[in-house]
Amino acid sequence: MALNEPKSTEPQLPVDEAPHNIFYRTVWRWHFYAGLFVIPFMLILATTGIIYLFKPQLDTVTYHDLLFVQQASETSTDSTSLGATPLPYAQQVQAAQSAYPMATVTKFVPSLEVTRSAEVIVETADARNLAVFIDPYTGQVLGTRDEERNLQAIARKIH
């Protein structure tokens, strides 16, 4: 090569690439693009699955004021306390019905522990499902949770 000849700037291409190498590169290219397409769906499924899997733990954090009550003592001087024994289930359901008179009771979940509230599921006239939380010792309505518009329901729909 002479000193005055210009150098070629074009890249050197392989003369003949083996067919199995072309196939291998094509498969890996499609695999890469398929992975990029699938990753967002897998992340959504994993996130909503975790939310759904840890429902009890998330509920106790999110709805602590609705799920937990102070157990009434027999010597309590509080005028709203009726004693250490919970009210009959019929009275607890009646408390929910009096809070939502036009609703239909569809489910009753009694308190699982002495510090847990009872849960009455009602269907309102506008077809919403509400969980009404009742203090099993006083019959007081602690609050409600819309069963179709909470974190768990949204995660379940997305999942």
TrEMBL record:
Classification via InterPro entries: PepSY (IPR025711), PepSY-ass_TM (IPR005625)
Transmembrane intervals: 30-54
Key words of the record: Membrane, Transmembrane, Transmembrane helix
Domain PepSY: residue ranges: 86-144
Domain of life, source organism: Bacteria
PANTHER family listed in its UniProt record: IRON-REGULATED INNER MEMBRANE PROTEIN-RELATED, PEPSY DOMAIN-CONTAINING PROTEIN
Name recorded for this polypeptide: Putative iron-regulated membrane protein
Organism (species): Phormidesmis priestleyi Ana
